[in-house]
Design a protein that fits this description.
Number of strands: 14
CATH architecture of the largest domain: 3-Layer(aba) Sandwich
Bound molecules: pyridoxal-5'-phosphate
Mean pLDDT: 95
Largest sheet: 6 strands, mixed
Strand content: 15-25%
Helix content: 40-55%
């Protein structure tokens, strides 16, 4: 873990974002996790164990691939892909789930709890818990359970307890409430594993640190392979974990332009998007301060994206600060552009991306033609599209 990263401050703030917007007794619990994390993550035992799993279980380092045919088709900058889709379980989420599960084990916790929406975080966490031998309990809305068949089955096979949430809208928001209630029954022995760089301090910091392997590797690989850094680096932004993991490796390289891509859904001028940075306001959500999509009463608005991993009404606090500082640009890509990129990458390169990742691919496709072949773009391909193929086939009538 990089000790040069100055953020967040003592109270978990990135500028005016982040913090712990939670009751005082919960602050005590979160601070215990923070202290344990800061101590345990610095030990050689923990680092050796995590690095060994990254290498021999996940398959790190993930390759950087030059997408030659795609680049030539667009006739401009060279496009490179960081292949997080090749990780065990098929996405970047395993990077922080392994970190969280190992931390839970070192802290002597008996049960790991989480919510899941589409099931991606649930599967990655259930995998990590099976591996380290910890009980895992995942709360999921009944509506989502009915929709996400393969992920539900995987979680059951992996041995986690799947709790069907039937209250409210029976989706992600209710699953969060339900899982959190269970957690509060015994926070000494249980731990709540958040699935992105969101929630109260220390989670935005901790999840970022675990994901920063992506940017660190990319920087070394590019310098070794190309002898230079790319002109633009782009990644999709839901909560923001794959993007911040990548960007962390390049924040001090001023010549490298960093671009986060949010989902514009059916359009920024409709209610059906999840473009938190483009359309959100400052406020608090799920225990931290961030830009978020809320109504006049401060209630989170329903959000939408074709990529269910991106439909979160808030965004990680460090991203909010990076936006205000102007260090990272945030743009939005809509469903149609996403599907076009999904199909193009599949047919030109033989790589089926996750719909989430296809947002970043779409942005690269938009700008590549206006750049020169001496320039390059690195896309963080956060996950593979196996989970999305039936949906796309239905949508396109394949
Ligand atoms: C969950 C997910 C995302 C969105 O989460 P972030 O925290 O924004 O990275 C992006 N891509 C894939 C493949 C995912 O599974």
């Amino acid at each position: 873990m990089d000790s040069n990263i100055p953020m967040p401050d003592e109270r978990g703030y990135f500028g005016e974002y982040g913090g712990q917007i939670i009751p005082p007794d919960l602050v005590v619990i979160m601070d215990e996790i923070k202290d344990a994390y800061l101590e345990i993550s610095q030990t050689k035992v923990f680092q050796d164990e995590l690095n060994d799993l990254y290498a021999n279980y996940v398959g790190r380092p993930s390759p950087i691939y030059y997408a030659k045919r795609l680049s030539e088709k667009l006739g401009g900058a060279k496009i490179y892909l960081k292949r997080e889709d090749l990780n065990h379980t098929g996405a970047h989420k395993i990077n922080h789930c392994l970190g969280e599960a190992l931390l839970a084990k070192h802290m002597g916790k008996t049960k790991v709890l989480a919510e899941t929406g589409a099931g991606q975080h649930g599967v990655a966490l259930a995998t990590a818990c099976a591996l380290v031998g910890l009980d895992c309990e995942i709360h999921m809305g009944a509506v989502d359970i009915a929709k996400e068949h393969p992920n539900v089955t995987k979680m059951k096979i992996l041995g986690c307890t799947l709790v069907e949430v039937t209250r409210g809208t029976q989706t992600l928001k209710d699953a969060v409430d339900s899982a959190f209630e269970e957690y509060l029954k015994d926070p000494v022995n249980f731990i709540y594993a958040i699935g992105s760089v969101v929630g109260p301090h220390p989670f935005p910091m901790m999840v970022r640190d675990f994901q920063s392997i992506v940017g660190k590797e990319s920087r070394e690989q590019l310098l070794e392979q190309q002898g230079k850094l790319p002109d633009v680096i782009t990644a999709c932004v839901g909560g923001g974990s794959n993007a911040i993991g990548m960007f962390t490796g390049f924040l001090n390289d001023d010549a490298v332009k960093l671009v986060g891509v949010e989902p514009a859904g059916r359009g920024l001028d409709t209610d059906d998007h999840a473009a938190t940075m483009s359309k959100g306001v400052k406020g608090s959500l799920h225990g931290f301060e961030c830009y978020n999509l809320q109504d006049e009463n401060g209630e989170a608005l329903p959000v939408y994206s074709i990529a269910s991993g991106l439909d979160y009404p808030g965004v990680g606090p460090q991203h909010c600060l990076l936006k205000d500082l102007g260090r990272v640009d945030y743009v939005a890509v809509d469903d149609d552009e996403c599907v076009d990129a999904f199909m193009t990458l599949s047919r030109v390169e033989g790589i089926i991306p996750a719909l989430e990742s296809a947002h970043a691919v779409a942005y690269a496709m938009k700008i590549a033609g206006d750049m020169s072949p001496e320039q390059s773009i690195l896309v963080n391909l956060s996950g593979r599209g196996d989970k999305d193929v039936d949906f796309i086939a239905d949508k396109l009538g394949l």
